[in-house]
Amino acid sequence: MEKITPFKNAEEAIASLDNGGRFYNIFTHANDQVITEAEVGKVAGMFADKQQSILFFELATQLLDETSKAAVIAQFDEKLQASYEQFKPVPFAAATVSNNVIMQGIPHHVDSKMKFTGFMMVPVGTVFTMIPLAHYYEAYELRNEQGEELMMIAHKKGKEKLPARPITLAGVMKEMKDMDKTTEGQFVEVSYYVE
Description:
Radius of gyration: 18 Å
Helix content: 25-40%
Structural class: alpha+beta
Mean pLDDT: 87
Order of helices and strands: EHHHHHEHEEHEEEE
Strand content: 25-35%
Number of helices: 7
Low-confidence stretches: none
C-alpha cells in the first residue's frame, strides 16, 4: 500500500501524468498533450495493471474540482478513457466483487487470524491453489467517526501499518472463500491511501 499526495490543480496533474512512460514505451511521448495508460502506470508505480492505475488516478485527483478533473481526463487517449470507464470506482454501498472503491474512516488493526478465516485462490501454473488470507494480509476494521464498523479491509503483510486516524483508502473489493469455495464474506484490499 502506498501513501499518495493528491494533485493540487489540473496543471500539476497533467504535468505529472504526461510523462512519456518508461523507457520501453517507445510510442509514448512526454508533454504531447496525450496521457496514456503507460504514463499513468508509471506515476502509480504499476507496470500493466489498468485497474490499479485508475484507482491511483481517482485518489490522486480527489482534491480537484469537477472542471479541473475533466480537463485532465480530456487528455486521456482512447485506451485510457475506456479503462477509466471500466474501472472507475463505484460508491462503497453499491460495490461488488472486483469493483474499485474509495472509502473514508478510521482503520483499527485486528487479529488477522480471527477475522480472515477464509482463503483466496491464487493461480499457480495452470491451476488455482487456496492460500489462507491471514498469511498474506493484515486485517483492519474500517470504522466511521462514531466507531461503527463500515468494512473489513486488508493490506499486505510487511508493509507500513495504517494510522489509527481518519484517512481515505482506495482498493478493490474481494471475497473470502472457505475450503469448499463457498463465499464467507467480503473485504477491501487496500492499495493506496491519503491522510
